[in-house]
User: What shape does this take?
Amino acid sequence: MPLEIRRKPDGSLKSKYWYGAYAVNGKRHVSNLGIEIAGAPPASLREDGDPAFERSRGEAKNALAKTVALARGTKSAEALVQEIHEIKYGAKVQSFAVADLVKAWESMPKKRRKLNPRYMKDVKCTVQRFVTYLAGHHPQVVDAAQVDKRIAREFMEAEEARGVADKTWNDTLKRVRATFRFLQTEYGLWRNPFDGIRMREENQCHRKPLDNTQIEKLLATTAKDEFCRPLIVCGLGTAMRLGDCCQLRWNGVNLNSPTPNITVKTSKSGETVCIPIYDRLRKELELAHKSRKDKNPFVWPIQAALYVRQHSLVSRKIGRIFKTAFGKDLVHGVREHGRAKTSLLDFHSLRTTWITEALSNGVNIETVKLISGHKTVEVVTTYYYHPNQEQVRNALQAGLPDSITGNSGTKASPQAERDARLIAVLEKMTAPTWKKDKSTLLAMMGR
Assistant: This one.
């Protein structure tokens, strides 16, 4: 077995300990054996030394033999994982370059077949930011298996130092963690360095709904803006997102039906919704139909083209309308954590306004979900239902008995209230909802 002595250029001892060299799985290792060199070392280890030196050599040989037996006879963590992975998946752990982590995310199986291009671009930027961080702070890390918990925590600390909001921080953690989880399954990584890092509580600033006065002011401000007005009217009357309004197609617009409606597959959730068309939006659609050229599939082709080319510019155009109508102080709020101010009033406020008004005026939450395209009630009530004090007061006054409110003779009769609810359901009934609305009506009538 090869024993080693560390010497200085002049031949004197550099270390007073014996070293031993050995190989495990083809990789050479050199260890300090912890045995002190005794006596007078010869010029070469091929020569014999004095008795004291030879005794220490013998002790060093025994120590090296134990070290080699331990290294070769007991599986290392890596070798054990290799064996388990090979038994489970029929192949050994493979290496994966950290420079290709974006490709790893692209290869991951997704819940939805088609992802929004903006979302895909955002996630790729997040993963690439981690790759760039490794290249700048840990250039020696070239394989994904070399990324440990310390590096993972350092990266998340660097994200915090950038001043991002809590939601952005959480999104970053989820994306890089999911990427490494995929590598665990496909390439046999024996650990996910981002496991164990806890998500942060998000203190989100929700969009505020507009009251009637603000709605009228917004419509007056945008009355002569041929680019923004149709989009704002569409968002206000349908609760559709900006992208869905911009890319609304004529094949989803039914103006000639006894119950005019818009049928569209929402870009975010992928849900197909059918939304009634009322007078204000109908006027905008008829105006757009008169100016339609060359059978263009989009209702508002200029807005659709700009949204595809540069969606942020469309948002800025809409933002200027809101700032003109309400002023910067009302439009923007200050985040506790985050690099930019939060938006309190913007295009998405129209969606919040529609949902808040619908729920405050007695529209069934299931019906609201059919229009908004949300999959759960929790999302609707948590993020979009923000009634003001007047709406809360009116709802409670209509629902609470006079013995609590102290009112006398101000409430409609039970029969009148029931008729009003029946009429509300009938007016909002559409082809896709008639079966459910029929059951609702029969239940209200006690049938």
